[in-house]
Amino acid sequence: MRILVVEDDPDLGRQLTSALAQAGYAVDLATDGEEGHYLGDAEPYDAVVLDLGLPKMDGVRVLERWRAAGRGMPVLILTARDRWSEKVAGFDAGADDYLTKPFYTEELLARLRALLRRAAGHATSALECGDLLVDTRSGRASVDGEPIKLTAHEYRVLSYLMHHQGRVVPRTELVEHIYDQDFDRDSNTIEVFIGRLRRKIGSDRILTERGLGYRLIDPKVDATQ
Ligand code: CA
To answer: What does the mean pLDDT of the chain come to?
Structure first.
């Protein structure tokens, strides 16, 4: 999953990007409203953390422009204390959730997990596909109760496939959702990650749909499809 952070406070921006990266997300940081608007318009983020008080273009305007252009990704707004009217404007512009500064990073992470799983139609932070389990809260995965060790990129690939299980995920879509902007993207490495994941979770769980992409299945249920 890939997150955009739009925050002009350098300390908070750094703190958020490192906490999100640590939690297993690919993260891009924009430090003003114009850059933030551009990135959110051009790149397919799974969620956005958007400060409302921003230079060049304020956060409410950024959000209004995304929504007017049909960008529907979940957006969590950050507002200053005592600015209730800002919150109202943010929700009216299309925000999905908010946090008032100062906040605990843990709460931001929990709210983001909730937004991501709701957007993908899941009710809890533990994603299941048969006996394959990914707990997005702890960042851990297991098969039949046995923990499996994943690298950061393997976790991102698996977590994205788990959020979108049952449907074919094109390789280009995976590339766009597991790397941040500055990463040297090579779609061939996706095949490498998929190969390693298959060795760790079982080769029959990720199907390759020729020319289309990958589909995560429960082999015990989907074997005949
Ligand atoms: Ca600000």
So the answer is: 92
